[in-house]
Amino acid sequence: MLAASALSVAAEVVEGLQVHPERMRANLEADGGALMAEAYMMDLAEELGQAGAHDLVYEAVRAARAEACDLHVALCKA
């Protein structure tokens, strides 16, 4: 009963949503790829370990923001 109620509320919430692909793309580009930080970290953890990958990606995000460049570019420089 609780699951059915939650599903009903979720359906009401998403009913009025509109997708604007151009805005989605602009928002993704505005953050310089930082949204992908966790995905990069997971991939790098296989080689560097979890702590090493975290530290590398954390510093790359800081560098990307300071230099106003893409996270991918900052990671390539690291």
Tags for this model:
single chain; 78 residues; 0% strand; mainly alpha
What does this structure look like?
The mean pLDDT is 92. The longest helix is centred in the middle third of the chain and has 31 residues, at 37-67. This protein is mainly α and 78 residues long. The chain is flat and about 50 Å long. The protein has helices spanning 2-15, 21-30, 37-67, 71-77.
What are the segments in which pLDDT stays under 50 over at least 5 consecutive residues?
A: none
Radius of gyration: 18 Å
Assign a percent range to the helix content: over 70%
Number of helices: 4
Task: Compute the separation of the termini in Å.
Answer: 52 Å
Q: What is the succession of H and E elements?
A: HHHH
What spatial form do the alpha-carbon principal axes imply?
flat
Helix-strand makeup class: mainly alpha
Average pLDDT number: 92
Strand proportion: under 5%
Number of strands: 0
How many strands, which pairing sense, and closed or not: the largest β-sheet?
A: none
List the SSEs and their pairings.
Elements: H1 2-15, H2 21-30, H3 37-67, H4 71-77
Helix pairs in contact: 3-4
In short:
The protein has helices at residues 2-15, 21-30, 37-67, 71-77. By secondary structure, the protein is mainly α. Helix 3 packs across helix 4 (71-77).
